[in-house]
Amino acid sequence: MLFNSINFAIFLPLVFVLYWFVCQKNLKFQNILLLIASYFFYACWDWRFLFLLLFSTVLDYYTALKMDQNETASKRKFWFWLSISINLGFLGVFKYYNFFAASFADAIGNLGFEVHPSTINVILPVGISFYTFHGLSYVIDIYKKRIHAEKNFVDYSVFVSFFPLLVAGPIERATHLLPQIKRERKFNYNVAVDGLKQILWGLFKKVVIADNCAHYANIIFDSSNDYSGSTLVFGALFFTFQIYGDFSGYSDIALGTARLFGIDLLRNFAFPYFSRDIAEFWRRWHISLSSWFKDYLYIPLGGSKGGMWVRIRNTFIIFLVSGFWHGANWTFLIWGFLNALFIMPSIIFGSNRNHLDTVAAGKLLPTFKELLAMTVTFTLTVFAWIFFRAENVTHAYHYISRIFTEKLFSIQEFKDDSKLLPIVSLVLFFIFIEWMGREKQYAIADLFSKNRFLRWTFYYGILLIIFTYAGLNQQFIYFQF
Questions:
Q1: Minimal CA–CA distance to 225: which of 19, 424, 415?
Q2: Are 79 and 63 in contact (CB under 8 A)?
Q3: Averaged over 18-30, what is the pLDDT?
């Protein structure tokens, strides 16, 4: 069930009415309803994978209880590694088995031996990386005695499977979400309205920006040999705004939907394309995953306390793992490696914490220095996205090599350019609104707050644009991760 589908437009109001008007102030019934709604939401993708979600939930719930009940280090370690190994085992089989089998065959083939490893033909369960990481963080926190195990199975199950975040995050922490699930929730009109505004902006990002940019990005990437260098640059730019509009749009809809039920989810994006260096970019892009790797991988590896070599090593490790988390393809590993490489100057010179504020805060325009820094950072990001989007390493190499030719500054027509000018105009409009709202939680949070007429004119205008440019119905990119 897509957020931008008619089914969800029926599903959400129905659950909302049952939640606030039927269950009313009964927290137990509200949580049961959220659990049923979440499982129904997930079953709409493929009901067979409900059993995998339920198994993962039961596994982490039970092993956490066993760890909490045992003070013996050996027993706690047994239950901890049982949960970790099974969770990662499922993730590895569904997501990475074929990749490792094919890579092994290629490596042996390069030595002169021919092998034909068996592969498995299965559909990757939607959201498996996200709900697996929910469970892993919970189990690790229990093992480290940061929190106690949750005894209420329904409450824990809602934490794992809450439908706004189930298939593409944000990756929540038990310390943040579980207390909200267990706490009585009262309807707040202003919070609900704020949630609806964030949903509206998220839909605009997804339906108007991401889906239409995807149309042109797909045309150019799929036929990259037919285009000049300048057109390939446009293809990379289209994908750059596609993936941002797609993923941050999903996150906005998820956060806005959660607010309708009185729950605050972790912020996942903070205007990353206005970053002044790569370190700032990664504090603003997919925040929940970046912080997850920092807390559960980077710091346990030693963080920044072991000297420069340790910092460099750990940085490369988390970026390579982050790349591999995104998919079983060498292109993702190279994408992670490039980002580690780009962030190295900040690590080596200790400037990775220089830009903790919002660029040009309180000002209409950035300084020349800020503009130059944003341009360089954005250019590096676009370059790395080419590997992320390419089908394979060879495709990425040929794509980049065709950019840096004598035709880089040539003009070439797109295939199917009937909507090109309106889409480019909408992207520029999108950048302008994002810039004006960059100091808020999301771009239109406080837009025209003092002028009711302009505010509602803007909302209706956005709705009109959504209905005008909807219809391509591209699947959310991060569903495959």
A1: 415
A2: yes
A3: 91
pLDDT at 48: 83
CA dist 208 to 221, 429, 451, 459, Å? 20, 11, 25, 14
Angle CA(224)–CA(226)–CA(229) in degrees, nearest 5? Answer: 65
The pLDDT assigned to 100 comes to 54
Tokens representing 300 are: 């346990």
Task: Please tell me the distance from the alpha carbon of residue 1 to that of residue 46, in angstroms, as a whole number.
Answer: 10
pTM equals 0.92
Give the Cα separation of 214 and 416 in Å (integer). Answer: 13
Can you tell me the distance from the alpha carbon of 138 to that of 120, in angstroms, rounded to the nearest whole number? 30
pLDDT confidence of residue 293: 93
Asked if 202 and 252 count as a contact pair (C-beta separation under 8 A), the reply is: yes
Contact status, residue 209 vs residue 474, Cβ threshold 8 Å:
no
CB 36 within 8 A of CB 50: no
CA distance 404 to 29: 61
> How does pLDDT run across 245-290, given as a tens digit for each residue?
999 999 999 999 999 999 999 999 999 999 999 999 999 999 999 9
Buried b (16+ CB within 10 A) or exposed e, 457-476: ebbeebeebbeebeeeebeb
Helices (H) and strands (E) in the chain, counts: 18, 0
Q: Is the pLDDT of residue 481 over 70?
A: no
Q: For residue 230, is pLDDT > 80?
A: yes
H-state helical runs in 111-228: 128-143, 153-161, 174-182, 189-203, 211-222
Give the percent of the chain with pLDDT over 70.
Answer: 90
Tokens 């990757």 belong to 124
Under 8 Å between Cβ of 216 and 209? no
Query: Identity (one letter) of the amino acid at 226?
Result: D
Contact 53, 163 (CB under 8 A): no
* Residues designated catalytic: 326
Q: For residue 259, give both structure tokens.
A: 């607010």
Evaluate whether 174 touches 141 at the Cβ level (below 8 Å).
yes
**What CA–CA distance (Å, rounded) separates 44 from 340?**
38
Could you count the other beta carbons within 10 Å of the beta carbon of residue 111? 6
Residue spans of alpha helices (H) in 365-447: 368-389, 393-403, 420-436
**Rounded distance between C-alpha atoms, residue 288 and residue 459, angstroms:** 29
- Report the 10 Å Cβ neighbour count for 188: 12
Looking at residue 351, the DSSP 8-state letter turns out to be: -
Q: Between 474 and 437, whose confidence is greater?
A: 437
Instruction: Say how far apart CA 335 and CA 347 lie, in whole Å.
Output: 18
Secondary structure letter of residue 274 according to DSSP: G
